[in-house]
Protein 1
Amino acid sequence: MYDLDCKIIKGKWHKNKYKVIKPLGKGGIGNIYLAFNERRGFVALKISKSMLSITREYDNINKYKNKNFVPIVYELDDWEYKGETYYFFVMEYIKGYDLSKVINQSMSLKLKIKIFMIILGILEDINKEGLIYADMKWQNVMVDYDNQSIRFIDFGSLVPVGEVVKEYTPLYDRCSWGMGTRMADLGYQVFGAAVLLITMLTHPINKIDKKYIPEVFKILKKTGISGDILELLNKALYGEIKDCGTFLRELKKVHLNLENKKSSLNILLDIIIGVLVIALIIVATKIKSSIIISLL
């Protein structure tokens, strides 16, 4: 992170002052801080030495300003400090936690799948604009507990389809696994999403290599993940699912089938329990009758 010993950032053009409270994280193009402004209250401030990168991310977020999965951006400005120019934008501070903290807590498979389906829907929305959200990872997915929604952060990794991916995390990167190129295409998005789901379902992956994929599936099987989900993940990793929209529809089918199977099983169990109760009543009645007869 940049060593910002200065506690006050004042925009050169808008003249707004922001008191830096604490660092929130480090993105692909800069650092993010929790800050306070008298008019806006608590905000997130992203700062970088790259004017191009900051401006591009600001524009990317603005492009989706009517979508509830992106933070609200307030302003873009620059700041002179110790002879250097820094560029920053100010955005809504999301009160919540990233996906890693959610998954580390005890959570049912059903809820994990539902969260992932929301993520797939967001990715499909982005992809329809001709863009790929390249840096897909836990830390970039926030659970907003004020609005009860899933929000994406760090839009600096958005890449037009057909261009080379420059900002990525190796674990979710198809090329790092030896499973394809680092070209921004719909298959690249599906691969990263599939790895995200795998990490949601099991422990963190320790080795990034296509030779390790069979071992990953062995670990998943031990956790009791259904064969249908495993088959879908296998197709996603090996490029047999063309886009996130298809991935989402197929996952919904699998999820529905699993729910129907559970419902059928519950009905069957209810019937069995009902039959056993009736049988016990009959047996109890016969025993009671036998006792009465013997007493006579």
Protein 2
Amino acid sequence: MFPTSRTLENGLSYRRPFPSVSTATSSWYAPCKMTLDLSLALLLLAVLGPLILILMALVKLTSRGPALYQQVRLGLEGRPYTIIKIRTMVQDCEQLSGPQWSKAGDPRITRLGRFLRRCHLDELPQLWNVIRGEMSLVGPRPERPVFIDQLEKQIPNYHDRLQVRPGITGLAQIQLPADSDLEGVRRKVAYDLCYLQRMGLWLDLRILVGTILKSAGVPFDLTRRLLWLPCALAEEIDRLSPDESDRDQDEERGRHVEPERTPHLQTI
């Protein structure tokens, strides 16, 4: 397990640590979750396999480059693995721009890619990652290793997300839009930590149903009321900001404190 409280390298401290993975989780939850992940992933891959092949063929026909996109992410306890997705951007899109967030109207996204992202069909190949035991159906989204240090320095308790396997979908993914700035990442981390404190089979099942409803275009406010999904409170999100009093003390001592920088991430 990762520690829930540390002092940041720039001298800033946490307001107070979030709890780790819920200790109230039943002893049967972990093996039951793994069994559910494997069973559903095998079933979905068998049923959706032909659709994945069709989408891969369409990607090849409509843009240059491979149909699948592979990238290293961090999984359980910070172990790296290779995530697999259907490519939605032009080939080698980061050669000139470097890693960065995808924004609304991003010219790097292909026409077919916009449709795949809107329906989340580009995520389907990650079922293979679930079968390999690298991911879960439900959990925090995995991040690229190059950005972890930046985000840990700017978002307290960010590393706690690595206490569980990353997921194809999750509490944050179905409630919040794609990241576009540091504040968006902070909100998603608050929802991830909210999931860690409440995780259980019943919540996982509700998130899976919520994912289906979101893909079908059902407004989330309606989904949340129907499924009783938990939300991170504003105070929990605020708790993920470095304490301003520590910043003031550093300035009084004449220490230079770097302002927060928005990391250049790419949401794929």
